[in-house]
Amino acid sequence: KMDDDDDIPQLSSHTLAALQEFYLEQQQKEGMKTSQGFNQYSIGSIEEDWQLSQFWYSDETASCLAKEAVLAAGKGGRIACVSAPSVYQKLKERDGEDFSVCILEYDRRFSVYGEEFIFYDYNHPLDLPENLLPHSFDIVIADPPYLSEECLQKTAETIKYLTKGKILLCTGAVMEEQAAKHLGVKMCKFIPKHSRNLANEFRCYVNYASGLD
């Protein structure tokens, strides 16, 4: 009788060694994180996944946007971060302040944040949990994952459903007209920066008097 193992492709010893090294490195990284009293909310605690078109803001930009969100939401305000996890992480660092926040995100790695995490796919903009009531957030910060009108238009449906009024949108400068058309937002002077330089010029857009001008 044939040996069942024959048809399983074998990894070369070189590939195996490389894989083991990779896993060891990952484990060491994880180990370092926990031993340094690692902050699960810090930017970079979950690494960018370019296949999901993820690009984290620089620390400074994320802090600035988080601060703006807290001011705009007001005391006891509710903030929704739609595909903007680095702002969410900065908001969580502002512990003890009077606001609450949810993160709507396609990347399930963010489910480590427990019930504040809501799985979100912009292709199904209103496929949201029942307990996310319409117009229940004082401000929605959104950073649609792709620079396309279709992505903006669908994300806009989600934003309009969630917000009581205030919108802070971060997207490419090329999207200015579409942003105005779908969300009635105008470009601010503030220029968001990413931790790695992006090829596309990025801007912030708001529909209220913000501190970003």
Describe what you observe in this structure.
- There is one protein chain.
- With 213 residues, the protein is α/β, with parallel strands linked by helices.
- Helices cover 32% and strands 18% of the residues.
- α4 (149-162) runs parallel beside α5 (176-183).
- It is globular and about 60 Å long.
- The chain starts with 12 loop residues before the first helix and ends in a 7-residue tail after the last strand.
Brief descriptors of the model:
globular; 32% helix; Rossmann fold; 7 strands; 213 residues; 18% strand; seven-stranded mixed β-sheet; alpha/beta
Describe the protein's topology:
Elements: H1 13-35, H2 59-73, E1 77-82, H3 85-93, E2 99-105, E3 117-119, E4 137-142, H4 149-162, E5 163-172, H5 176-183, E6 186-187, E7 202-206
Parallel strand pairs: 1-2, 1-4, 2-3, 4-5
Antiparallel strand pairs: 5-7, 6-7
Helix pairs in contact: 2-3, 4-5
For the CA atoms, what is the radius of gyration? 20 Å
* Class based on secondary structure composition and strand pairing: alpha/beta
* CATH H-tier superfamily of the domain at 57-148 and 161-206: Vaccinia Virus protein VP39
Through-space gap between termini: 77 Å
Enumerate the strands of the largest sheet in spatial order, edge to edge or round the barrel.
Answer: 3-2-1-4-5-7-6
Spatial shape: globular
Beta-strand residue fraction = 15-25%
Number-wise, the strands total 7
List SSEs in N-to-C order: HHEHEEEHEHEE
Biggest beta-sheet profile = 7 strands, mixed
Task: Tell me the quaternary state.
Answer: single chain
**Unreliable residue stretches:** 32-39
CATH architecture designation of the domain at 57-148 and 161-206 = 3-Layer(aba) Sandwich
Helix content: 25-40%
Total DSSP helices: 5
| CATH C-level class of the domain at 57-148 and 161-206 | Alpha Beta
Any idea of the CATH topology of the domain at 57-148 and 161-206? Rossmann fold
Q: Report the mean per-residue pLDDT as an integer.
A: 84
